[in-house]
Amino acid sequence: MSNFNFSCFDRFFLSFFNFRKFSARTRSAVLLTSLLKRHPKKVDPTHRAVFRRAHYHKRKQNIMHNRRSLLKAMLALGAAPLFGADRANAAATIPTAAFDYDLVPAFGNPHGDVTIVEFFDYQCGYCREMYKMLHRVVAEDGNIRLVMKDWTVFGPDSVYAATAVAAAAKLGRYRAAHDALMRSSGRLSQRKTDALLSRRAGIDEATLAETINAYRTEIGSALQRNDNQARGLRLKGTPTFLMGDQIYSGALYKREVLRAIEKVRTAGV
Alpha-carbon Rg of the chain, whole angstroms? Predict the structure, then answer.
């Protein structure tokens, strides 16, 4: 590593502070940021993976900070409070959310001994980032039922995306439609959602529009029910997971998901 030239700021950081007192994740992030900027082709792929994990951790911290700021602003404007849950009341309504999934089919084993409920939004970046990992855990375990709850916190475009996927479920194309949007990137719009479902899920736009119109009231009622449940549970935002009688807010690492599953099985909830 001595062959690389660090910037003045990097050298100051390394010399002025006792660098060893920082965590391995922080040290890796600082060093690899310098290397990637100046010598992107010389960094070992293994080191790149370490940097990505460190960067993911930092993004997770930043977005949770931004969400807290947003929630404070909503409260200042008179919006309904979304946190400060009464755990006794929350635990009493979790089973309702877990077994009320008539809008779309559940993933995994319908008779699994553990039920995971995820409140998500198709425009939620961390919902997308967790998508592959979570479904891999469900597939590898074989005894988990995963219930997806559309909670359209990102506005009208999210409402349309959720409505379109629910309409796709009526056409027997739910999994393909859900996968198409969860693997997308950037903001969604009605035009982008239609294009993704047409290209990746094989759903004709005219057929989709007809199905949405035919089931608009039913789908709208289900989305409103999801919103009522989320507010009743005082959820903070997306993603939020219900497992057993516990609520897990924000993005989770795989080890955290596995630990929560094991906790449910141990408790026999």
Answer: 22
